[in-house]
Amino acid sequence: MKIRSITIFCQPGFPVNRLLLQQVGIFANHARKLYQDSDFEVQSLRLATPPFEHFIAPVDLPLAAQSYAIEAHADGFEYVSLGPISTNSNVWQAIPQALSKSVRIFLSGNLTTSEGAVSLQAARACAETIVRLSRLEKNGFANLRFCALANVPANTPFFPAAYAQPGRPSFALALEAADLALQAFSQAATLEEASAMLIAAIEQHAEQLEEIGYHLSEMYGYEFKGLDFTLAPFPSDAVSIGRALEGLGLDSFGKPGSLFASAFLTSTLDRARFKRTGFNGLMLPVLEDSGLAQSASNGNLSLRDLLLFSSVCGAGLDVIPLPGDTTAEELTPILLDLAALSLRLNKALTARLMPIPGKKAGELTNFDFAFFANSRILPVNSAPLHGKLTGDEDVKISPRNL
Question: Taking Cα atoms as reference points, which of 138, 118, 131 lies closest to residue 92?
Fold first, then answer.
């Protein structure tokens, strides 16, 4: 298990408050040292601000992105999330320009309102942004730093979803822990034993992580928001959530039985005792997981399958390779489905979709990137909406009554 990110939540403003940034930089680097001294590998330090529209004029967003990338990096932060754009914003077109300024900057866009409604207008704008971003960099990589948010709260430490609330700085940990599930599920003789072993492993690590977190909080006065045990993978079979789920008895993840296995895993996570923030569910990032990438290549995993699994998992549609000629009109209904699912089930979901320039459905990707496993381009199987679904309404979706 590794710490994917120590994520600091704060509001340095713009122009950037250098003193505050230096202070949280000192804290973050001290936190990294304490965790490393306890034998936890820390992959990155990250900074998440409140939604940028609260403190950056739209015309200044590209300049602010460039400034944050330089100044935050000087204090040890590898990446910065400037938070989500609001559903009723008219500055979506500024996002590609801002992300073009630095590979260290992340942004997101809200599909849902704080009143529990899906914004038809925002879904279209977000889909159009994804298409524009796909043409910004080779291999469509700009979409790695942008996602659509549905019902996602503040203080989620995983990027690109991360954003802060106004107030004093705080922090949380995003964990790369798919190997814990792989070890538990491969060694157990029964499902009950597999669940018990995973819970024990999570709680053992959580106790150590929390002890350091609370110690840091007491020293600096920054609130420790908690842990996100979403069991993030790495593109090797030893840290694959797809392989872990297959270890329960699936022939290949994506085939029938996969929904049950996914629900079993998330139910197990729910039973583990630790201080929670963020998703704390099942993350299925196709390009970041060798097992999932293989399932998609073999035709056992589709976009619709991944949306179905989102009903019982914790993060939604993540780093999914799509044809380069995918249109905004085809993406919009997918985003609406995801947003409706998040509100109806009262859970946080995101969509990080990656149209790959020049690639068609069924073709292999050719990434030369340590954090990606190559896979086949998944077909979209979507069609443009028409009639009342093309309006500009905010549509209330009430949570299911249990």
Answer: 131
Model confidence over 267-316: pLDDT tens digits? 999 999 999 999 998 999 999 999 999 999 999 999 999 999 999 987 89
DSSP string, 353-396: EEEETT--TTPBP----TT----BPPP-------GGGGS--EEE
SS3 295: helix
At residue 5, φ and ψ (nearest 5 deg) are -155, 135
User: Which CATH number do you get for residue 270?
Assistant: 3.20.70.20
Contact 73, 41 (CB under 8 A): no
Say if CB 231 and CB 180 are below 8 A apart. yes
pTM score over 0.85: yes
Cis peptide before 12 (omega within 30 of 0): no
- What is the amino acid identity at position 143? N
> How far apart, in Å, are the Cα atoms of 387 and each of 102, 384, 392?
39, 10, 12
The count of structural domains within the chain is 1
